[in-house]
Design brief:
Helices cover about 35% and strands about 20% of the residues. The strands form eight sheets. A seven-stranded parallel beta sheet has the order 14-15-13-16-17-12-18, with helices on both faces. A six-stranded parallel beta sheet has the order 19-29-28-20-27-26, sandwiched between helices. The chain has a five-stranded antiparallel beta sheet with strand order 2-1-4-3-5. It is an alpha/beta fold. The chain binds adenosine-5'-diphosphate (ADP) and zinc ion.
C-alpha cells in the first residue's frame, strides 16, 4: 500500500510514501504521520490518499508512524485545503501550515556531535566548517539551531553535510514531545485511613513541624483531593515537605489531564426581543436561505445586525448544526464574546492568533472530537478548523481588508474562502456590513446573493451628524492648534463637559511618525528596506515597519552631522500628547498595535472605556471597527485625506468604508452623536457622498471608473512579486518574465513596476500585475503563470530569485 502525503513545507505537490504492513490497518486518510524527507529530517505529514499504485522513477520511503492521533482531517476538510492551495497558488504544504496550530506542526530536531575521527594533518577546512567543528565535541549532541545561533549563520545544514561526508560528525534526528495536555497534580490519601490512624499520624509528626503543619492544613481542608499547588501555597510549605509525607505512605500525588478552557458559571438568557425591522430582516434572510442563496445583510452601523445573527445562530444550533462566526480583528472578539456568552453560555469556542498555541491546539482537538463546540468565533484562520455539521458561516464586517492574508502564503481572502467552505458543507453564508465590499454588493445587485437591509439604527436613534473641518482653510487663517481644528476642539469641549466620551481616529496607513533633521531635512531610513523608520517616543526607538529592526535615534543628524532630529507627522502618540495639553483634565488612552502589544491590553482598555474610566480614546483602524460603546458622543477623524489619496485602486472604497465605520461608533445609545472629519481636500466628491450618506451612488460612480480602467470586480487580478538581493538581476528577471507572459497573455500583463516599498530586508522587489477578464480560463492562466515562473527560476542567471503569487490581491 502507498500513501500520498502533504509535507508541512513550501514544496510543490504531494509525495508518495509506502505504508508498511504493520501500519496498514491503523493509518487512515486525513491522519498526521511521521515521514522523513530530504535526508533524515522527520516531519508530521498529512495523509491525503491511500492507494496501491507504486510511484515511478524513485524508490519510496516508508511512513514511520502516526504522529498525532487526535488530529484527523475529514474528506471535506482535505478538499477545502486543496482548494485553497489551488485557487491561491500556494503549495498544499503552505496551506497545511496555515491550518494547523504550531503544536501539531511537528518536525524532528537535528542534533550534531563530533566523531572520534581527527582532522588529517594536511586537511584544511573552509572557515565555517572549521568553526563548527571547533564548537562540537564527541558524544555531545547539540541542536543545529543552537549551533547556528552560536556561529551566527542562517543555514548551517550545508556545512553539516560536508562534515558528515568527511566522517567528522554524526547527526541524530529526535522528535521532542510537543507539550499538549495540561496536567494538574492533585494530592490524595495514599490509602484509606481510619480516624484513629489519622490522629496517630498527627501525633507522630510532632517532631517534624513542617510536615505537621502541612498535614494539619490537609486535614482542615477535609477533602479527598486537592490541587498540589494550592495545598502548598495555603500551608506555606516547600515541595520537599509534601514529598516526605508521600514517602511515608500517608499522602500521594495523582496527575490529571485538565481542560484549558475556562468554564465560567454563566446565566443564559433568551437575548433581546427583536424590533419590527430586525424581525422582518430575519424573515427575509430565512427565505433567501431556504431558496438556497447566500445573503448580504446591509445594515447601517448600530442597526442591530449582531442581534439578528444571534437569532440565526440559535436556530441552527437547535437543529444540531455548527456555526462559524468570523470577525476581521481580534480586538472585536472581546466584546462580541461577552455578548454571545449571555445567550450561548459556554457553548462557544474562540480562535485567534492572540491565543496561546496550546489553547489553539486544544480547540482543534475539541472540534475534531465527539463533543465539538456548536459555535466558533474566530478570525480568518478559523476557516481551517475541523467542522462536521457546518450549517452557517457569518462573515461580519465582510468588507474589511483584514480578511485578506498578505504574508505568508497562502494569501487567501477569508471572506471568499468562507463562501467556498460553506459550499463544500452545504452551508449558508451571511455577509454583514454597513458598507459592503464592491464585490459583494455586485453579487447582491445582480441577484446572485440575497440582499437584506436594515436602514434604521436600533431604537430609532438618528445617525450621527457629520461635520467637516476644512483644514486648508483653517491653516490659511492660522487657526489650527497642532493637529486640531477649532471645530474639533469646540465639539470635544462640549462632549466632555456633558460627561460623554470621545474617540479620535488617526489613520496611519502609508505613513507614520518619523524623525526629520531640522537643518538638512534628511529622514532616517532603514538600512535594509526603502522606508523611513517609525519613531516611538515612549521607548525612544526607531523601528522598521517592514523588517522590524530597532535602533536608537542618533543625537545629531547622520547626514549633515549638525542638525537635530524633530518628530514629524502626528501619530497616535503625538495626538495623545496634544489632547493632554488641550484638555488637561481628560483621561486619555491609546489603542493601537504598539499600546496593545500585550494580550490583555485590548481587554483592559475596552473595559476601562466601557466603565468610563477613560474620556478620550485615540486609535488607529482598531477603534474604527464594530466596537459598541454606550457613551461615545463624538468621533473625530484627524486626517481623512491620507486615506483617500493612497495608491491603490481600492483606496476610495476603503476610505469610505473606514469613515462610515468609525463614524458609526458615535451616538449608539440615547442622544444623537456627532462626527467631525478633518480634511484639507474638502472638495473631494467622496466627502459629499459621505455627507449625503449615499453609498449606493458612491458605488455606482466608483464602479463606472473601475469598469473603465478594468479593475475588480470587472476582472480578476493576480499580483506577481519578484524578489532578489541584486537590483540588476531582479530587473532582468522581471523583464524576461513580463516578456514570456505577454507572448500569451498580451495586454493582460502590466509592469514590471516598483511596489510601494521597493526593498525590504535587503531584497529588492518588483511586481507584475495580471488582469484577467471575466470569462477567461482562470485556472489555465494560473497554471501558465506557475510554469513560467518555474522555468525562469531554473535559469542560472536568476539564481536566488523568488517569485510570489497573490491571487485577488
Ligand atoms: P450593529 O452590529 O449593526 O452595529 P449591534 O448589534 O451592535 O449593531 O446593536 C447596536 C446596539 O443596539 C447594541 O448595543 C445592542 O445591544 C442594541 N440592540 C440591538 N438590537 C437590540 C434589541 N432587539 N433589543 C435591545 N437592544 C438591541
Ligand atoms: Zn527594515
Amino acid at each position: 500500500m502507498f500513501a500520498d502525503i502533504i509535507l508541512p513545507l513550501a514544496v510543490e505537490g504531494l509525495f508518495t510514501y509506502s505504508l508498511p504492513p504493520a501500519l496498514e490497518q491503523e493509518v487512515k486518510e486525513g491522519m498526521l504521520v511521521w515521514v522523513s524527507f530530504a535526508g533524515q529530517k522527520k516531519y508530521a505529514a498529512l495523509v491525503c490518499r491511500i492507494h496501491n499504485t507504486p510511484p515511478e522513477g524513485y524508490t519510496v520511503k516508508p511512513i514511520e508512524g502516526i504522529s498525532e492521533e487526535h488530529v484527523r482531517f475529514s474528506p471535506d476538510h482535505l478538499r477545502f485545503l486543496m482548494w485553497v492551495a489551488e485557487y491561491y497558488m500556494a503549495s498544499p504544504g503552505e496551506v497545511l501550515r496555515a491550518a494547523l496550530p504550531v503544536v501539531f506542526r511537528l518536525e524532528s530536531v537535528t542534533r550534531i556531535a563530533r566523531t572520534e575521527q581527527e582532522l588529517a594533518e594536511d586537511e584544511v577546512l573552509p572557515e565555517k566548517e572549521e568553526a563548527m567543528l571547533r564548537a562540537l565535541r564527541p558524544g555531545e549532541y547539540i541542536a543545529l539551531q543552537e549551533l547556528e545561533k552560536y556561529l551566527r549563520i542562517r543555514n548551517g545544514l550545508p556545512y553539516v553535510k560536508s562534515l558528515l561526508n568527511r566522517g567528522l560528525v554524526r547527526i541524530r534526528e529526535t522528535v521532542d514531545e510537543a507539550f499538549l495536555e495540561k496536567k494538574e497534580k492533585r494530592v490524595v490519601w495514599a490509602r484509606l485511613f481510619t480516624e484513629r490512624e489519622k490522629s496517630e499520624i498527627l501525633d507522630g509528626l510532632k517532631r517534624a513541624p513542617g510536615q505537621h503543619r502541612l498535614f494539619c492544613r490537609w486535614l482542615e481542608a477535609a477533602c479527598e483531593s486537592r490541587e498540589r499547588k494550592h495545598l502548598l501555597t495555603e500551608a506555606g510549605s516547600a515541595p520537599a515537605v509534601l514529598k516526605a509525607l508521600c514517602d511515608k505512605g500517608i499522602l500521594a500525588i495523582e496527575e490529571h489531564t485538565v481542560s484549558r478552557f475556562v468554564v465560567e458559571e454563566q446565566e443564559v438568557s433568551e437575548g433581546y426581543p427583536l424590533s419590527a425591522g430586525q424581525q422582518e430582516a430575519l424573515g427575509q434572510i430565512r427565505n433567501f436561505f431556504n431558496a438556497g442563496k447566500h445573503v448580504l445583510l446591509q445594515g447601517v452601523t448600530s442597526s442591530g445586525k449582531t442581534e439578528v445573527y444571534i437569532r440565526l445562530i440559535r436556530s441552527l444550533i437547535d437543529e444540531g448544526k455548527q456555526v462559524l462566526y468570523m470577525l476581521p480583528e481580534i480586538a472585536l472578539t472581546v466584546q462580541i464574546v461577552k455578548r454571545l456568552k449571555r445567550v450561548f453560555g459556554n457553548r462557544i469556542g474562540v480562535y485567534h492568533s492572540g491565543m496561546s498555541e496550546s489553547l489553539r491546539a486544544e480547540l482543534w482537538r475539541k472540534q475534531s472530537g465527539d463533543d465539538p463546540y456548536p459555535l466558533v468565533l474566530g478570525v480568518r484562520s478559523s476557516l481551517f478548523l475541523p467542522f462536521r455539521q457546518l450549517g452557517l458561516v457569518i462573515v461580519d464586517e465582510e468588507h474589511d481588508a483584514s480578511y485578506k492574508q498578505k504574508e505568508p502564503a497562502p494569501r487567501y481572502q477569508g471572506r471568499d474562502a468562507a463562501v467556498m467552505l460553506a459550499a463544500m458543507h452545504g452551508a449558508r453564508v451571511l455577509l454583514g456590513s454597513a458598507t459592503p465590499s464592491f464585490e459583494t454588493l455586485r453579487n447582491a445587485y445582480t441577484g446572485k446573493y440575497g440582499r437584506v437591509e436594515l436602514t434604521q439604527r436600533y431604537g430609532g436613534i438618528e445617525m450621527p451628524e457629520l461635520l467637516f473641518a476644512d483644514l486648508a482653510e483653517y491653516r490659511r487663517k492660522k487657526l489650527m492648534k497642532g493637529s486640531f481644528s477649532p471645530l474639533l476642539i469646540q465639539k470635544m469641549q462640549q462632549t466632555l463637559e456633558a460627561g460623554y466620551q470621545v474617540i479620535l481616529f488617526q489613520n496611519r496607513r502609508g505613513y507614520s511618525t518619523y524623525l526629520q533633521c531640522d537643518r538638512c531635512g534628511s529622514i532616517p531610513k532603514c538600512r535594509r528596506c526603502d522606508v523611513s523608520l517609525t519613531y516611538y517616543k515612549e521607548r525612544n526607538v526607531l523601528n522598521c515597519r517592514y523588517c522590524g529592526s530597532l535602533s536608537e535615534p542618533p543625537a545629531v543628524c547622520g547626514v549633515c552631522g549638525q542638525g537635530r532630529y524633530r518628530m514629524r507627522t502626528p501619530g497616535t502618540e503625538r495626538i495623545e500628547e496634544e489632547v493632554a495639553a488641550l484638555f488637561p483634565g481628560a483621561r486619555v488612552a491609546r489603542m493601537d498595535l504598539e499600546a496593545m502589544s500585550s494580550r490583555s491590553g485590548f481587554r483592559r482598555v475596552i473595559d476601562d472605556f466601557e466603565q468610563k474610566r477613560i474620556d478620550v480614546l485615540i486609535g488607529t483602524q482598531m477603534v474604527s471597527k464594530g466596537l459598541d460603546f454606550e457613551h461615545v458622543k463624538l468621533v473625530g477623524v484627524m486626517d481623512a485625506d491620507s486615506m483617500v489619496h493612497f495608491p491603490d485602486f481600492r483606496a476610495e472604497e476603503r476610505a469610505y468604508q473606514m469613515l462610515m465605520q468609525v463614524s458609526g461608533r458615535s451616538g449608539r445609545k440615547g442622544e444623537r452623536g456627532t462626527v467631525v472629519i478633518q480634511a484639507a481636500d474638502r472638495k473631494n466628491r467622496l466627502y459629499d457622498l459621505l455627507e449625503a450618506g449615499d453609498y449606493a451612488e458612491f458605488y455606482r460612480e466608483a464602479m463606472a471608473e473601475r469598469e473603465a480602467f478594468s479593475y475588480p470586480p470587472f476582472c480578476r487580478l493576480i499580483r506577481i512579486e519578484l524578489r532578489h538581493p541584486e537590483n540588476v538581476v531582479l530587473r532582468n528577471a522581471a523583464n524576461r518574465l513580463a516578456e514570456m507572459l505577454r507572448k500569451r497573455l498580451g495586454r493582460r500583463v502590466c509592469g514590471p513596476a516598483v511596489p510601494e516599498v521597493g526593498r525590504i530586508g535587503n531584497r529588492y522587489r518588483l511586481i507584475l500585475l495580471i488582469k484577467i477578464e471575466e470569462g477567461a480560463s482562470f485556472s489555465r492562466i494560473k497554471q501558465f503563470l506557475k510554469e513560467s515562473a518555474v522555468s525562469l527560476s531554473a535559469d542560472k542567471a536568476c539564481s536566488g530569485l523568488r517569485v510570489l503569487f497573490d491571487v485577488d490581491p
